[in-house]
Amino acid sequence: MRQNEERPPNERRSRTGRGQGNGKPALRSTLHQRGMRMTPQRQLVLDSVRELEHATPEQVCKHIQRTTPTVNITTVYRALDLLEQLGLVRHTHLGHGAPTYSAEEHEHVHLVCHHCGEVDEVPCEWFEELGGLLRRERGFALDASHLALSGTCAACRADEADRGGNTGDPHGADPDEGG
User: Fold this and answer.
1) Which is more confidently placed, 105 or 179?
2) Selecting from 3.30.870.10, 3.40.350.10, 3.30.1490.190, 3.40.50.1400, what CATH number does the domain 106-170 have?
3) Which parts are annotated binding residues for Zn(2+)?
4) What is the 3-state secondary structure (H, E, C) of the chain?
5) Is the pTM of this model over 0.85?
6) Which residues belong to the annotated binding site?
7) From the annotation, which residues make up the binding site for Fe cation?
């Protein structure tokens, strides 16, 4: 499956392994501190983002509508906007089209396979050296937590190698040989 094709949420491959805490006390107290009320729709959106791990607003809406068909896409967009303002979710652009949301449980960089659509995560710390170089050479402060890199995942590279094709590395380097 190609990156720009929409994979149904229950078929999206992800290797994040994040926990699925429900976050009800955190969301309720955060909203209450700001003079807002907790709504079932807001909780459904947050729970869906956590369950799906990486999802567009449309995927979140479809996921919710399986059990609560009265929730519409406008409600989902408003809830996502609020949840992002509260620091509970974060969006990034994993490809063309709608932004993808994930729970703001830890800062990470997304790795997106442009062959199968798999989304993986790596810690932002992996990019500290690059961030230092950009700061020294260009005066640029990198926000790696909003970064998505595209390439070819290990499984697709292995499939291509088994077929005798291009492994997805434009330089022809074998990552196992360090070059």
Assistant:
1) 105
2) 3.30.1490.190
3) 113, 116, 153, 156
4) CCCCCCCCHHHCCECCCCCCCCCHHHHHHHHHHCCCCCCHHHHHHHHHHHHHCCECHHHHHHHHHCCCCCCCHHHHHHHHHHHHHCCCEEEECCCCCCCEEEECCCCEEEEEECCCCCEEEEEHHHHHHHHHHHHHHHCCCCCHHHCEEEECCHHHHHHHHHCCCCCCCCCCCCHHHCC
5) no
6) 113, 116, 128, 153, 156
7) 128
